[in-house]
Amino acid sequence: MSYDDRQLPRRAVLAGAVGLVLALAAPATASAASAANFGYTDDGTNYVVSTGADLVFKVNHSNGDLSSFVYKGTEYQGYDGKNSHIQSGLGASTVTISQPATGVLLIKVVNGTLIHYYAARSGENNIYLFTYKADTSVAASRYIARLKPGIFPTTYPDTWSDSDTVIESADVFAKADGTTRSKHFSNLRTIDYDYFGFTNSASTAAIWVVRSNKEKDSGGPFIRQLLRHGNESGAGLYEHLYYAEGQTEDERFGLHGPYVLAFTDGSAPATAVSGRNTTTWVDALGLTGWTGASGRGRIVGNGLAGRDTSQPYVVGVANADAQYWATVNASTGKYTVPGLLPGTYTLTVYKGELAVHTQDVTVTAGAATTVHTITITGDPSTATPIWRIGDWNGTPAGFRNASLVTYAHPSDSRAAAWAADPYVIGSSTPGAWPAYQFKEINQGLLVSFTLTAAQAAADRTLRVGITTAKANGRPQTTVNGTWTSAIPAAAAEPSTRTLTVGSYRGNNHTYEYVIPAANLVAGTNTLRIDAASGSAGGGGYLSPSYAFDALDLL
User: In angstroms, rounded to a whole number, what is the distance separating the alpha carbons of residues 188 and 207?
Assistant: First the structure.
């Protein structure tokens, strides 16, 4: 199964999991120790673990690097002389191995306040990983599995070729035809996948990362993280412990995992997903920071009143220590959030990606907390507008280029022009309105609308919703050339790139402008929107900018 660079990835579903696959060329076969017997040896540099199936892997016992993984006799690990590891390698560490339970080998890597674990289960072609991060004293924002060069194609949105032209920050590239590539263009929100990876063209071997439950990660269900990359130098698969690009939350600390590096014959990683979801086997391992099922609770939601049934809903649950989410049943409005650590959380109801309700909820270990039917009162769509462009759902979905820019740069040759003709209320469609506005690219967007004499006789409120912004960009509005709004205060948004690296996600914000009746006319009126900022940004597509959610006149 594969996906091309023109569309969303096709997804494989197994036991509720969503998978993403890349096609690979068949790798050369490497010699390897037999994986017939479960156990380990020490070769003087590494602990050599045989899973008793088709996988043998090595962990360096001086620094905790994963230095080899051989599946069915083929070595897949490594490029540029680098191993797989936390961050770019922990350096000198204390590394030990033990068998804490029948059929489980555990390697423990200690570096300052950070503890990282590798676990192998007898008969499985999986490497289970756990990372305990107590604070920021040890740099640890990711685990990267480095894969051999010359195996993977470079024809997908998050892969590139050395001959491609760098167009932004050394990590966004353009091909000769003007299409763009970047390691940031995975095109998946965290809620969209459970596993991702590579498979060979014959579908006889695959390497996957099964993500953790993300309770100690940050950014919620809708963040888009770098998941993989590939070029002539090799490829990488990632599990992020804290992803700073487009981040909306502070870092959380504690035990991440299990997340799994899984090897299959081309099929989905079923045993790895099961081993991640059913974790009673982990209880006996003595991991720092581990809380088993008996020490957790769940939330049972009876329903949501006031839903827009044309939109999906998600319930997020978060505090400073943990985060969780669940999809709301489209028919009943009910939901269940399982496996929560005890504590008091903020429960947020999202319509699409727009928060429309929040409340506190307390979870107790070993118990279910029932949340009675919630009546949604924070949906801006319930206000009756004179006109509206787009849907209030926290995303630019439906706007021009919105379906492209989560896996391509805004300058991509496939993008329609960002500069737009005047949007005429009553005849134009949302697809004519650009998803993004950049100060140096499409300044001066126009909306033409008609008011009756009665409508023009009263002050009117214009609402412009954005999902995120770059360089403190925010809308300044002008009506009929006779009234211009003050420049509003900038919303708190991520300080990193977002719009040019495949993400429109930030802290959704709605700007409101009261237009005096004296500046409105019965008949045709013209609204102009300009991106304003006191910051210059980086110029061009990095100039002050923002993504639209919706805009309307009340």
Answer: 18
- Over residues 337-370, the pLDDT tens digits come to 999 999 999 999 999 999 999 999 999 999 999 9
Instruction: Report the C-alpha gap between 470 and 491 in whole angstroms.
Output: 10
Q: How far apart are CA 314 and CA 329, in angstroms?
A: 9
Q: What tokens were used for 497?
A: 């790139």
Measure Cα distances from 523 to 68, 424, 462, 463, 553 in Å: 72, 13, 17, 21, 15
| Tens digits of residue pLDDT in 442-484 | 999 999 999 999 999 999 999 999 999 999 999 999 999 999 9
What span, in angstroms and rounded, lies between the C-alpha atoms of 153 and 100? 41
How far apart (Å, rounded) are the C-alpha atoms in residues 92 and 516? Answer: 67
- Would you say the C-alpha torsion 362, 367, 371, 372 has a positive or negative sign? negative
CA distance 169 to 507: 24
CA distance 50 to 40: 6
The CA-CA-CA angle for residues 517, 519, 520, to 5°, reads 65
- Strands annotated E in 329-444: 335-340, 343-351, 354-363, 368-371, 374-375, 387-389, 423-424, 436-438
Instruction: Give the tens place of pLDDT for each residue, 532-554.
Output: 998 888 899 999 999 999 999 99
Q: Quick one: pLDDT at residue 420?
A: 86
Largest Cα span, the chain: 87
Residue type, 42: D
In tens, the pLDDT along 27-57 reads 333 334 445 699 999 999 999 999 999 999 9
* Residue keyed to tokens 């979801």: 277
Query: How do residues 164-205 score in pLDDT, each as one tens digit?
Result: 999 999 999 999 999 999 999 999 999 999 999 987 777 788
Q: What angle do CA 242, 244, 248 make, to 5 degrees?
A: 95
The token pair at 267 is 């099929």
How far is Cα 541 from Cα 538, in angstroms, rounded to an integer?
Answer: 8
Residue 197 phi/psi, 5-degree rounding, is 170, -150
Q: Rounded CA gap, 122 and 40, in Å? A: 11
